[in-house]
Specification:
By secondary structure, the chain is an all-alpha fold. The chain has one domain. The protein is about 75% helix and about 0% strand. It has helices at about 5-20, 25-30, 35-55, 65-80, 90-95, 100-130, 135-145, 160-170, 170-195, 200, 205-215, 230-240, 245-275. α4 packs across α13. Keywords: Cell membrane, Membrane, Transmembrane, Transmembrane helix. Its main location: membrane. It comes from Thermocrinis minervae. It is found in: Cell membrane. This is Lysylphosphatidylglycerol synthase TM region.
Length: about 280
């Protein structure tokens, strides 16, 4: 029963969604996305993935850019599809397949996730200012001090080897470089959302907290299959708090969620073929 719960959640949401949201309204929303806007949104999504791949190069310097890009793309795809962040295991599986030592794959993985969150909080604080500017300040302080984080790892057996690796690879310059690329990745992915729904809502900063909530939804304990239901509800809640109807909020969330799934599948499926059938991806 526990294993089937993510599928039950996803199916229940889809049934409820198509029951309460008229099909005509969904068609109307799709018709308001011109093909050039859709292509531009995909272009911004692609830039986001490129920024992520460039970021990994700091720690995976034995791999080519294309290898890192496909590795990252496969990881994003599995994260979008498999519940409860189990898709993260694909990072370690394919990194090992590409002969990346475990300490490098582990540290790049941890740093990537930490800087993703710092970038989200930093940009959110800048956009909304007020007391939320504290998020930006704290995020920036963490970035500035991050190269000293190896002090928190004890000198114990295998951990000492990992600690020394981090010490050798970390510096203030590297931290700032990673942070800038993480912000670029976040902003270009947000630009994809703004572009996709521009004809419906225009440029709207209220989408930022919804976007952040949707990004964080994948860490929920009950993350559904392909994120259906958990993503939409997480994305919709901030919009609902702004007074937007739940129907419109869910529709926006559903459209962008499917855009992300399809976009990640385009690169992820190609990446699977490349990583599985080529000893040295191009």
């Amino acid at each position: 029963m526990k294993r089937s719960l993510p599928f039950i959640l996803a199916l229940s949401f889809l049934v409820a969604f198509f029951y309460f949201i008229p099909l005509e309204k969904l068609k109307e929303a799709l018709s308001r996305i011109p093909i050039p806007f859709l292509l531009l949104a995909f272009f911004f999504y692609s830039l986001s993935q490129v920024a992520r791949a460039v970021r990994w190069k700091v720690f995976l310097d034995n791999l080519s850019f294309s290898q890192i890009f496909w590795l990252s793309s496969v990881n994003v795809f599995f994260n979008n599809v498999i519940p409860a962040r189990l898709g993260e295991l694909s990072w370690f599986y394919y990194a090992k397949k590409l002969n990346v030592v475990f300490r490098a794959s582990l540290w790049s993985f941890l740093v990537g996730r930490i800087f993703d969150i710092l970038a989200m909080f930093f940009v959110s604080g800048i956009v909304f200012r007020g007391y939320l500017i504290t998020l930006s300040i704290v995020s920036l302080l963490i970035v500035l001090l991050f190269h000293k984080s190896y002090f928190m790892i004890p000198k114990w057996k295998k951990l000492e080897e990992f600690r020394n690796y981090i010490k050798e690879r970390s510096s203030l310059r590297v931290s700032l470089y990673l942070f800038v690329l993480s912000c670029v990745s976040f902003l270009t992915k947000l630009a994809a959302l703004q572009t996709l729904v521009y004809n419906s809502v225009g440029f709207d900063t209220r989408l930022v907290p919804s976007f952040v909530a949707g990004e964080l939804s994948s860490v929920l304990p009950l993350h559904s299959f392909m994120g259906y239901g958990t993503y939409e509800m997480s994305f919709s809640l901030p919009l609902k708090l702004y007074g937007i109807s739940l129907e419109d909020a869910l529709l926006t969330a559903f459209l962008f969620h499917n855009f992300l799934l399809i976009s990640s599948a385009v690169y992820g499926l190609i990446g699977l073929v490349v990583l599985h059938y080529n000893d040295s991806p191009p």
